[in-house]
Known about the structure:
The protein is an alpha+beta fold. Helix content is 17%, strand content 28%. Strand 8 (192-198) and strand 9 form a beta hairpin.
Amino acid sequence: MRSxxxxxxxxxxxxxxxxxxxxLGLGVLAAGTAAAAGDQPGGAPTPRTAAAPAAPAAPAAPAxxxxxxxxxxxxxxxxxTHNIARAVELINGSVVRPGTIWSFNKTVGERTPENGFVDxxxxxxxxYVKAPGGGISAVATTMYNAMFxxxxxxxxxxxxxxxIERYPEGREATVAWGTLDLxxxxxxxxxVRIRAASSxxxxxxxxxxxxxxxxxxxxxxxxxxxxxxxxxTATGDTCEEQTxxxxxxxxxxxxxxxxxxxxxRETFRTHYTPRDEVTCLxxxxxxxxxxxxxxxxxxxxxxPAAQAAPAAGESVSPAPGHS
Length: 323
């Protein structure tokens, strides 16, 4: 019955509109047709049909705002400056549409010479090693903090296996091709544009879009479950000396503020393993081969097998699941 009445009311409204238009001398045109010129009896020109009122304009998109900006400083090194600049080049200018997910690995690609990256220092199996793409964790950490203070939704991230002093405790990130990504979702309801820049000693990422919150605040707990480091030795061309640092757990709260009041908070917990002291030792020299004598067959000493180089990857935690 409601459906029938609704259709009846619609027909009545259409009929009323037609009658009213006729009374006002306005022509009624079917959708998809155009008005044709004609003559009234007596040769008088037919009056032009009145123009339909313009449709209401769509609301203007909000002006682009700075949602957040974050800078990470780092010690200058040719490999680090080069790799960070290359990652920044690939990230700068990206636009993340509402509801979509931004991925570090997808945007930057594999850290290979073919993609413009060089060998540098990174963490593998709890110690520093040489491998392609070293240093770009500074970019990942900068992006993570830009996302954090923009109030956007984290999807995937992982901290370094041990703490690196130049990064904020519990608010840093690393990446490893094929195993660990840095991803976040644009849940702001509007496009987000990424502006990235770097120098020889710093990298800055700014997110531009529409703010959901007036402010984002961060608090950090004291360190807990402190674990002392051990001592290790290593050999091979990839070995790097390493100073010791304790392992610990830490929690960071992200607090969302709007209209002067707290709307909610999120807690992020991070576990850092100890950074062991590592001393690099020279590779053992092969045992000299004794000279042959007429009465004995030549003897050959076996050369120790070369130590396998660690698999490349930017800071993989030795214990999966730690974040």
